[in-house]
DNA sequence: CGGTATCCCCTAAGATACTG
DNA sequence: CAGTATCTTAGGGGATACCG
């Protein structure tokens, strides 16, 4: 309804605060959404973090990232390369050797990511507590509901026997 | 049934720089990974961004977030509530009214997220350029490979006719 | 070594319908 | 209005096999 008149694909202008929020995340043709998805990616973050230390070859990455498949590592690296976050250098030797490194832009992204990780580390205790509290509350409510149901049930039974 | 976070002793200490990287992302019983996943979530970010302005009711959120299903909004809100990022207030009126708001912790998260969004906005042009360059290069290489293949093919044909 | 191609499974998200 | 329950499907991701 309200967003019907916004046809220019790719353009992601921010004007009013309320409008801006709508734009930078709703439309997936918006760059922001795509980059966020890359960051959100299960493996991308880890690759970026590892490459921040030093450049690594394909197999080195594979060994360091426990549980990643060849396919996913290759995919992830190609995505990162395409976005200009990681550079790929082929050494025409035998056996072949390919080095991956963070580009300057990739490095700045890692800086930004760090602040996010820092946030999670600062708040992980609070979050764990919140979860525990929530689970306890939900559990309590469920039990209360069950008790109530049991009570209604017994009342119904009583009524039935009374009628008999 | 939802995913129960069974508390395996996922101690997530950081010692050496190299070790630390491995830990905070490889093991999914590690808190950081889970919180990152929440942040990365397609809808969570948008909900947080919208609630930062003011508290909203369920339907208000649904209307503002174009394309979200009832189910996903409910799920997202439950998760955020469980993590202590969003508060849920039920007004026992008729019709029922439920308000969602950012908790203080949720607000600080939004601050952190902002820096990420800022980064994407700063670099979206560079990324678009990198993608265009990559695609062009790949396209060029593919065409070159095809030309080469065609050439080899014609040479093979020539050799065949020479033998005849 | 450093990939790509193929198959296949399983989950997460969408659509739909129903309830307090 | 504010959800939950149920069904169904697309695609993310693993395993495997094969090329340069």
Automatic annotation (TrEMBL), chains A, B:
Q: Which domain of life is it from?
A: Bacteria
Alphabetized GO MF terms:
DNA binding
Secretion signal: which residues?
none
Known Pfam families for this protein?
Answer: HxlR
Q: Which InterPro entries match?
A: HTH_HxlR, WH-like_DNA-bd_sf, WH_DNA-bd_sf
For this UniProt record, the keywords arranged alphabetically read as follows: DNA-binding, Transcription, Transcription regulation
Q: Does the keyword DNA-binding apply?
A: yes
HTH hxlR-type domain span? 30-128
This chain belongs to the protein called DNA-binding HxlR family transcriptional regulator
């Amino acid at each position: 309804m309200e967003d019907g008149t916004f046809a220019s694909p790719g353009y992601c202008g921010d004007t009013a605060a309320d409008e801006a929020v709508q734009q930078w995340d709703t439309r997936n043709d918006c760059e922001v959404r795509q980059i966020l998805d890359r960051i959100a990616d299960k493996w991308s973050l880890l690759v970026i973090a590892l490459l921040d230390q030093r450049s690594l070859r394909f197999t080195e990455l594979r060994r360091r990232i426990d549980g990643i498949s060849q396919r996913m590592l290759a995919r992830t690296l190609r995505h990162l390369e395409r976005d200009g976050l990681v550079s790929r250098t082929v050494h025409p030797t035998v056996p072949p050797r390919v080095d991956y490194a963070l580009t300057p832009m990739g490095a700045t992204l890692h800086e930004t990511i760090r602040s996010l990780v820092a946030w999670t580390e600062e708040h992980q205790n609070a979050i764990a507590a919140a979860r525990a509290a929530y689970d306890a509350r939900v559990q309590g409510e469920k039990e209360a509901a069950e008790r109530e149901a049991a009570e209604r049930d017994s009342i119904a039974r009583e009524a039935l026997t009374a009628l008999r």
